[in-house]
Amino acid sequence: CIGGYLLQGGFGWNGRVLGPACQSVIGLDVVTADGDIVHASETENADLYWAARGAGPGFFGVVTRFHLRLYRCPRFLGNVVQQYPIEALEDLFRFAHSVRHEVPRSVEFQLMMRPGGRLSRRPHIEVFAPVFADSYRQAQRDLRFLTDHPISRRATLKLPLFPTRMRWLYAAAAWSYPDDHRYSVDNMWTRAPIDQLLPGLQRIAQTLPPAPSHMLWLNWMPSTQPQPRADMAFSMEDEIYIALYGAWRHAADDARYDGWSTERMRELAHLA
């Protein structure tokens, strides 16, 4: 699946620092519509190179090889995990919205609204704050916006900063998207005021299908500190990313759950 990841954008761990994966594509070997095999980069076939990074399934060639920029892995990878009752929804999302310009780029601050799960059968909101730093102390400093905030007192579960590994982060993410399920997914970028977003967030909470369905909120790109992007077809990002994942096991439930994500997103479309 790396082709879609590298062509369409590619949001992965430490992406707030490194940007979307397509920005780190430094060259491609491409079979064109004429059957020619060419190399595309900043200096060769630059038009193909521009189009490939962000075109996704619309790219008009077949990529046979990607050439990628590599990065040093941060010395310390850590995570903070908290869980809140669904009754804390308004206060928690107001907090997440209020710190959107303060969260260090080293932290991927995200909220997952669930109807239930391993940690609690009741509807709840999980907070994850993976951090990519050069030391434990730096990670502690970067996470103070969360750990020192009064909102943390409302958490029913708190795991303080603990070391993690990249494979554990991938495994934790994969747990939310199990195989052998049917999915209906929709998403949006937004910078809308929280007062305008809250009615839609509350409606999502009231209509969440059974687990593993969930909503993801990710603080992404502070508009006050825009990150330079390469000149490429990819262009769609903003302060906040909201995604809905409806998931169910049986085809007999298609009519019941299939429209949930698109209907809720349609209600928020004017804020996207």
Explain this structure.
The protein is α+β, with helices and mostly antiparallel strands and 272 residues long. It is 29% helix and 26% strand. It is built from ten helices and eleven strands. Strands 4, 5, 6, 7, 8, 9, 10 and 11 form an eight-stranded antiparallel β-sheet that branches. It has a three-stranded antiparallel β-sheet with strand order 2-1-3, covered by helices on one side. A hairpin with a 5-residue loop joins strand 1 and strand 2. Helix 4 packs across helix 8 and helix 8 packs antiparallel against helix 10. The mean pLDDT is 94.
Summary of the model, kept short:
The protein is built from ten helices and eleven strands. It has helices at residues 2-8, 15-18, 46-55, 89-98, 136-142, 144-147, 166-175, 194-207, 254-257, 260-268; strands spanning 25-31, 37-40, 62-68, 76-85, 110-114, 124-128, 131-133, 157-163, 182-190, 214-219, 240-248.
Strand content: 25-35%
Through-space gap between termini:
28 Å
Number of helical regions:
10
Compute the number of strand runs. 11
Radius of gyration, in angstroms, nearest whole number: 20 Å
What is the global morphology? Answer: globular
Unreliable spans are none
Largest sheet, if any? 8 strands, antiparallel
Show the helix and strand layout:
Blueprint: H1 2-8, H2 15-18, E1 25-31, E2 37-40, H3 46-55, E3 62-68, E4 76-85, H4 89-98, E5 110-114, E6 124-128, E7 131-133, H5 136-142, H6 144-147, E8 157-163, H7 166-175, E9 182-190, H8 194-207, E10 214-219, E11 240-248, H9 254-257, H10 260-268
Antiparallel strand pairs: 1-2, 1-3, 4-6, 4-7, 4-8, 5-6, 5-10, 9-11, 10-11
Helix pairs in contact: 4-8, 8-10
